[in-house]
Design brief:
- It is built from 13 helices and 2 strands; from the N terminus they run H-E-E-H-H-H-H-H-H-H-H-H-H-H-H.
- The protein has a domain of 198 residues: MetI-like (MetI-like fold, Orthogonal Bundle), CATH 1.10.3720.10.
- Helices cover 75% and strands 1% of the residues.
- The protein has a two-stranded antiparallel sheet with strand order 1-2.
- Helix 1 packs across helix 13 and helix 7 runs antiparallel to helix 10.
Length: 304
Amino acid sequence: MSQSRFQRWFDLKGWSALLIGAPYIWLLVWFLLPFLIVVAMSVATNTPTAPPFSFGGEHPWVNWEPFSRVLTDGLYLRAFLTSVVNAFVAMIFCLLLGYPMALGLTRVSTNWRNILLMLVILPFWTSFLLRVYAWMGLMGKNSWFNGLLTDSWNFLVPMSWAMKSVPMMHTNFAVVLVMVYTYLPFMILPLYASLERLDPTLDEAAMDLGSRPYQVFWDVTLPQSIPGIVAGGMLVFIPAAGELVIPSLVGNAAQPMIGKIIQDEFGQARDWPMASAVAVALLILMVIPTMIYSHYQAKAERLK
């Protein structure tokens, strides 16, 4: 009898608890614990030992010097500023390009919509690193793409401003360009999900009441798609701000982004506490705006 009760419990409650608890266990092991380790290292003292940090003894248990350097050292402040500016510019261009594409996806037939959605996610079927190398080839001085831009520039401007090639590689322009290409699908898909749920009869009602098409978009469509804009913006801005591969390959070494700084501190300088402090500061910089938006979004939902 007891065995049958146990069997019934395991068949019903046990599997349910296991399925519900598995994601939380995954997050605990692979997110929370590593994050706590990084936080602990950020207040440690850098030492020549292995691992290169220490607590207690002749060193303080809590060392705030790494965070003090993050807030005062020009190297880290410039890297944070460069990262935020590049990520913000990339997010704006992704929005300007992605919004019309997402809106167009909602206005075509189902057959065309499936094909276009496949084309949006098609770049994910190839290696991310391979796509970055392809852009490096396009932006090189001797590439056909650079030659086309150079010829167009020389045709449009006076001869005194003529150039042999357009300087694209190892600039912030190259970083933003490749990030826009890379993260554009992360803007399109949330926008499409938000726009696809809108009631088209609202647009028709506004048109019947005399609104022009741009007024319908500005007064009806755009306000209702703000959750999708915010979701897509965060999906682009957060990973772009901490990007490592793109700035390392096509960026300017004199203006490193914060991901490159963290890599150098962990690898070349072997200053793990400093690298951890920069990583924690970056996480705080990304999480606080998200938490503020979530708070006001939940508050607005309760008021409805």
